[in-house]
Design goal:
By secondary structure, the chain is an all-alpha fold. Helices cover 73% and strands 0% of the residues. It is built from 39 helices and no strands. The longest helix is centred in the N-terminal third of the chain and has 14 residues, at 2-15. 39% of the residues are buried.
Length: 682
């Protein structure tokens, strides 16, 4: 290695009291060799620079500019800035390199200040300098700045420079002025693949997908061969258009021109197939990919998680490690999410142990995912331990923990944590945090807390979020204030299926079945199509309001007209509705007609109705069925025992209670709720 030889010679010279000093030309040669053969010898370059200073030699401007360029190329902006500041003589190359280095690394304001200093110092900008400023304009999406630079380009006579012209074209496109971008493209004397790529990318960025594909078709007319940059933009256009035939055609063309061995292209094609919604086709393409990097694996894993195929995600993770690919934090987040979907606490703990070994536990996204996973698996203590051990907590961390409390039936813990967050952290609540807080209020029937959060929602400007409005109306309904819930519902500009279902359910749980049925009919007349949750809410409302005929008509409409397959809950609601009304003959007929669908919910509903009407014979049958299906359920024993006691059959009631104690079954205690959570959320 040339750089190693040079460093050794300099090291030897310093040991001999600098008797032998390598000529500066040797450093220039070694530096050039690094650029050609060794793409990232950053530490070696730093040593080279240091040894030059130790030997007392001042590197010339050409050498320093090359070193400056190398620092910028590898993102060492601090080192580049320091080196630039120490340069006694700066020419246009030095200034331009530093300005472009800032822009390339996402620092868009610093180059503008440096550009002003450059002009004050009397150095005249060249084409490279102006391109750097155009990159800043595009990054800032500042059309006025881009237009001003365009004027400077015309003034200096560089408008016909293809390098500058392409940069201007790209700037206008990224600033949203695609019309001027196209004008510049048409004015170019010689079209290059780079300028075509810039305009195609601009079209895609501005959602002109058909224009992007038309230009792609014209490239071959211009005698140009698309490269991987071209195809990446074209694939993005195909993803937006969502056409199966188009995606297959583009894939075939990629194979034809030999880009199917490029892993970036392969990953984009994978994204393209995933965007079509056919996970099996995407999985088949993934398995046939010649090259796979960690992005390929994590993309497929994330897709499995999104589609609820958690087991496939875990299998893919095992295959990934077998292939020798080292998982990254994205892979860790995906497998944690998969464990949460499966409710697999044991495997989740194993993954947590692996994360501790590989050092991913310091990553915020990983810790947040662990909190969510443990919460979904019902291990709230472990979730809180992870939360407490986090050095840095984001709003997502707090929200995950608050939601965990809500999911595990601890709304008070959720609200206390919300108060702690408001006191200790300076976070503004987002829509997801508010949904969790409102859900907790609904569980506690905390009307005062709900109103405070409603005021916060109004002040923070979240009323346009359907999720927030739906949570508000559900919370008000659970708190018993159905009138305010109705007002919230009417204020929703475009109510979705969740809005309608929540309002119908709100009427039902507050005993206003007539209003629930009326709103249901209004929904049917609108463009919103009822789903199985809608029908379940209507059946519940009819059951609690004694609207048996309306409920039976609704059930018949669901099955016969809408062709929605009833679930266990629907059958249970119908039986509950009939037995509450004392229509046992109809119950027998209904149960016989759906005998294959009768489950635990139906028999529990029947048992509860028999308790109301003192129908012992049917109650005993229902209790036996419940016991067969769920031997650990103590509720059926208590209900039947209470029925015996109400009829004066105390010996049989006591015998049932004794058998329950002998089997180790305990009655779930009833709880009275006292509102002790502080009300002021600030």
């Amino acid at each position: 290695m040339v750089i190693s030889i040079t460093l050794k010679s300099v090291s030897h010279s310093t040991k001999t009291h600098l008797k032998v000093i390598p000529p500066l030309m040797q450093f220039n040669i070694s530096f050039s060799s690094c650029q050609i053969y060794h793409p990232a010898p950053l530490e070696s370059l730093r040593k080279t620079h240091l040894l030059l200073l130790v030997t007392g030699r001042r590197p010339d401007t050409a050498f320093t500019s090359k070193l400056l360029s190398y620092y910028c190329r590898f993102g060492r902006i601090t080192d580049a800035q320091k080196l630039f500041g120490e340069m006694p003589d700066k020419n246009v190359v030095s200034w331009s390199t530093m300005i472009y280095g800032y822009a390339r690394n996402g620092f868009y304001l610093e180059p503008l200040k440096l550009f002003s200093q450059m002009q004050v110092s009397g150095v005249v900008p060249n084409s490279f300098t102006l391109v750097a400023i155009l990159v800043c304009s595009a990054g800032l999406e500042n059309l006025n700045l881009g237009s001003a630079v365009h004027g400077r380009v015309v003034k200096t006579g560089l408008e016909y420079n293809s390098f500058v012209g392409t940069a201007m074209l790209d700037t206008y496109a990224k600033c949203g002025n695609i019309a001027d971008s196209y004008k510049l493209f048409k004015q170019m004397d010689e079209l290059s693949l780079i300028s075509c790529n810039a305009l195609i990318s601009g079209y895609v960025r501005n959602e002109l997908f058909e224009e992007a594909l038309l230009l792609f078709n014209k490239i071959r007319v211009f005698g140009l061969v698309p490269n991987f940059v071209t195809m990446l933009s074209v694939i993005q256009g195909c993803i937006a258009i969502v056409s199966v035939s188009l995606c297959k055609s583009v894939h075939a063309y990629i194979v034809k021109i030999g880009l199917d061995l490029n892993v970036y292209i392969l990953n984009s094609v994978l994204d393209m197939y995933l965007s079509l919604g056919n996970l099996d086709v995407a999985a088949e393409f993934f398995q046939n990919m010649v090259f796979k990097d960690v992005i390929s694996w994590t993309t497929m894993m994330a897709s499995f998680v999104r589609c609820g195929r958690a087991s496939d995600c875990l299998k893919l993770f095992s295959q990934m490690r077998d292939y020798g690919i080292h998982p990254d934090t994205v892979a860790a987040v995906n497998i944690i999410a998969a464990c949460g979907l499966l409710g697999d606490l044991m495997r989740g703990r194993l993954i947590h142990s692996w994360i501790m070994v590989v050092g991913f536990f310091l990553e915020l996204s990983v810790s947040n995912s662990l909190i969510v996973m443990y919460s979904k698996c019902g291990d709230l203590d472990s979730a809180r331990t992870v939360f407490n051990c986090m050095v840095e907590k984001s709003l997502v961390s707090w929200t995950a923990m608050i939601s965990g409390y809500v999911q595990n039936g601890q709304p008070r813990g959720a609200l206390r944590l919300l108060l702690t967050m408001r006191i200790k952290e300076n976070f503004d609540l987002d829509s997801i945090t508010l949904v969790g807080a409102l859900t907790a209020c609904g569980e506690l029937a905390g009307l005062g807390l709900c109103k405070q959060l409603h005021a916060y929602v109004f002040a923070a400007g979240f009323l346009q979020y359907n999720s927030i409005q739906n949570s508000l109306l559900m919370t008000y309904a659970r708190c018993g204030d159905v009138e305010i819930a109705h007002n919230v519902f009417r204020e929703i500009a475009c109510p979705d299926i969740v809005s309608w279902n929540a309002m119908i359910s709100g009427y039902g749980i507050n005993g206003n079945g007539v209003a629930a049925v009326s709103l249901f009919h209004e929904m049917v007349k609108s463009s919103e199509e009822p789903d199985n949750v809608t029908y379940l809410s209507v059946l519940n409302a009819c059951s609690h309001s004694g609207l048996v005929d309306e409920g039976l008509m609704t059930f018949s409409q669901m099955v016969n007209e809408k062709r929605i397959r009833p679930r266990e809950e629907h059958f249970g609601c119908v039986v509950d509705m009939l037995v509450r009304a004392g229509r046992f003959e109809d119950v027998n007929e209904f149960v016989n007609n759906v005998s294959g669908e009768v489950d635990l919910n139906v028999w529990r509903a029947l048992l509860g109705g028999c308790r109301i009407h003192n129908n012992v014979t049917l109650a005993e049958l229902a209790a036996n069925k419940v016991f067969q299906l769920d031997p650990e359920d103590s509720g059926q024993v208590v209900l039947l025992s209470n029925l015996y006691a109400s009829l004066g059959r105390f010996e049989e009631a006591e015998a049932l209670r004794l058998s329950m104690r002998l089997k180790g079954l305990t009655k779930n205690p009833g709880l009275s709720m006292l509102d002790v959570v502080p009300h002021d959320f600030g």
